[in-house]
Write a structure and sequence with these properties.
- The structure holds 2 protein chains of 2 kinds.
- The longest helix of chain A has 14 residues.
- In chain A, strands 1, 2, 3, 4, 5, 7, 8, 9, 10 and 12 form a 10-stranded mixed beta sheet that branches. In chain A, strands 6-11 form a two-stranded parallel ribbon.
- In chain A, helix 2 links the parallel strand 2 and strand 3.
- Chain A has 10 helices and 12 strands.
- By secondary structure, chain B is mainly alpha-helical.
- In chain B, helix 4 runs parallel beside helix 7, helix 5 crosses helix 7 and helix 8 packs antiparallel against helix 9.
- Chain B is flat and about 70 Å long.
- Classes of the chains: A alpha/beta, B mainly alpha.
- Chains A and B meet through helix 3, strand 8 and helix 6 of A and helix 6 and helix 12 of B.
Amino acid sequence: MKWFKSLSVAALAIALVSTSVSVAGAASDLKGKIVINGSSALLPLTLQAANEFKKLHPKVKISASAAGSITGPQSVRKGIADIGAVDWDASQDVPGFKKFDGQVAHKVAIIPFAAVVNKNVKVDDLTTKQLQDIFSGKVTNWKDVGGEDADIIVVNRAFGSGTRVNFQMKALQGTEFISKGSNYKEVKSSGDMKTAVETTPNAIGYIDLVYVTSNMKALKINKIAPTEANVVNGTYKVWGYGYYMTKGKPDGATKAFIEYIQSAKFQNGSLKKLKFIPISALK
Amino acid sequence: MQLDTSARPSIAGPNASELGGSIKAGSGKSFDRKNRLLFYNRFFKLACIASAVFVCLILFGILFLMFRTGVLTFRDVSPMTFFFSTDWTPEDDRYGAFVFIFGTFALTLLTLLISVPLSVVIAVFLAEVAPTWLRNLLRPVLDLLVGIPSVVYGFLGLTILIPLLRDITGTNMGDGILAAAIVLTIMVLPTISRVSDDAISAVPRKYRDASYALGATRFQTIFKVTIPAARSGILYGVILGMARAIGETMAVVMVIGNTPQLADALFKPTSVLTSNIVMQIANVPFDSTWNNALYMMGFLLLVISLLMIVLVRLLQRKGAHS
């Protein structure tokens, strides 16, 4: 049965066209195999942690892959994965997704998000109300929010995206998105969002703060700039935790791995280098 | 086949001489040359049949698996709603797939409308007009174009074509069915034109000679004699191009806008079966109606492309008879 399990995981990884790494080693007391699936936003973090963890515990095998946030807790429920990485707390109901019963959420990182616009947009600052009106389609022209006379192009992530869930909860306070119109489009990934906002004049979208480039403009929300410092001092509210979901309480290698990624050494070292914010920064 | 049936009685009796004198009746060994050849023949025939059956099994296996999951959609959604409603809001349990079905047909038609005339003209140029050195240069270039991965076309469409369309037409976004059709046209152009080129080149020289001898001009010869004679080959190229256009996903998803609304304008963000499946499949809960509906859409896609291929085959046969 074991070979079947690993085979199906491998097949899944290939089928979902995901990056995957396999780590194997040679001598420590901790043994086991950890399979991680889920959010692509958390994958760089998982891979880095897996590389460091295998040096400490060479007998633990870790294979990590990513497809989309919702696949994380789903794989855990089906028993395909030991850890499901997800951009929201899947043990609670969130807009569009029911909670996963019997799963335990472990915070591993803080992910800030930013509302971004194309460089040609003259607006620098929007209030929560204005953001809600724009993303729900009530305001359709930049002149109504202090910009030039031009139609607003709304770029949205597809339903099910972790970034979308977080942005909807934190920045729009649960307001429904528009879903139709000739100035509205959806994109598949953070990379596509970046390209779409960079190349489409008058476009507005939202993206993980780490993806913001100099070819787009990150908006202030309620006059607060989206920076790491403002997240830590509590003034910028648009951020979410990245979670690892496990079936019940974790044990063995899985427990040790989650403890490692939550340890002060990893949080303040590699995690910061990857531009996530340590969970200990906010208490 | 013939060898096989005629050889069968010869195993029993010594009077079988149909296999010829080169095969000895045997020197007492059970596995002499004659029996060995018979064994090879039987085995090869079996291997061929098994391969053919295997291919059919795969096709029906895929159809069956897609259908089995897809049909579960109709436990929760009526077929009328699924096929004719334009309201696709899965998060609120409204599953109308008409937008995508219509989009797929419209996109394929628009693509063929642009690509077929262009391809045929390219093929005529290659086969009839271009000097030999240019022909020898262009054919490999077209062959190389076939091999370019679709995601590259999609990326170029997103970064070059869409801003260009925006500048030319003055629309706000540029995403939509026209952008997708142009990208697909560039993708299928080499396929259709190379197959058509081969078909036109294969038309016997005597047809052209006869046409010229009757006093026809070059234009008349090409459009009244050569192209009609190569018709079935050109249709075959169109089938190949169409199959690629219907199933194309990555290039389309990057330029079509991915919004579930009817493609009633050239520059309105819309969605087709393939792009909607790839946008959503990674994010749907397993065993949900939504998941089943996406499988049903995959099944539909299969059926549509199979039907179109059958249709064109029928047309081709009809064309060959007349």
